[in-house]
Specification:
By secondary structure, the chain is an alpha/beta fold. The protein has one domain: SPOUT methyltransferase, trefoil knot domain (Alpha/beta knot, 3-Layer(aba) Sandwich). It contains 5 helices and 7 strands, in the order βαβαβαβββαβα. The protein has helices at residues 12-25, 42-47, 63-73, 110-115, 134-148, and strands at residues 3-7, 28-32, 56-60, 77-80, 86-87, 98-101, 118-121. It has a 7-stranded parallel β-sheet. Helix 2 links the parallel strand 2 (28-32) and strand 3. The longest helix is centred in the C-terminal third of the chain and has 15 residues, at 134-148. 37% of the residues are buried.
Length: 153
């Protein structure tokens, strides 16, 4: 099953909402530090409600720590960016994919995007809208990958 990776998330409620989505789908969630909040933040906990025991959560202190973990497991790194090369609905997902998302303010760092096997984007009609909310982007992307792989039934 694809996994969600948040690189340097900054807003606790977004991460809490993403954790809730991961709990509901049985998806592993990886947080790559430094984080813009403490993992004990009350807003993070509140957004995740009482679902935290169901979240398969991995904390990585740095990108280097995450890279080591990823290399041990294998799978493709798919970076999501407003400048991604592939429309997320036209991509052929694999069960071992890692869906990477950057911080709410800066997105994925360019060096992380460069290491990705592919970069994907979620098309938006209004050019003046810079991006979707991070938790919305994760949910849309995760459910599309799950749909493609036949995990929705």
């Amino acid at each position: 099953m694809p996994q969600i990776v948040l690189v340097h998330p900054q807003i606790p409620p977004n991460t809490g909402n993403i954790a809730r989505t991961c709990a509901a789908t049985g998806t592993e969630l990886h947080l790559v530090g430094p984080l813009g909040f403490e993992i004990t933040d009350r807003y993070l906990k509140r957004a995740g409600l009482d679902y935290w025991p169901y979240v398969k959560l991995h904390n990585h202190q740095s990108l280097e720590d995450f890279k080591v973990f990823h290399q041990q497991r294998g799978g493709r790194l798919l970076g999501f960016s407003v400048r991604g090369n592939f429309n997320y609905t036209a991509y052929e997902y694999q069960p071992t994919d890692w869906l990477l998302f950057g911080s709410e303010t800066t997105g994925l760092p360019s060096d992380v995007l460069a290491e990705c096997d592919a970069t994907l984007h979620i098309p938006m009609k209004e050019a003046k809208v810079r991006s979707l909310n991070l938790s919305v982007s994760v949910a849309i992307s995760l459910f599309e990958a799950r749909r493609f792989l036949g995990y929705l039934s």
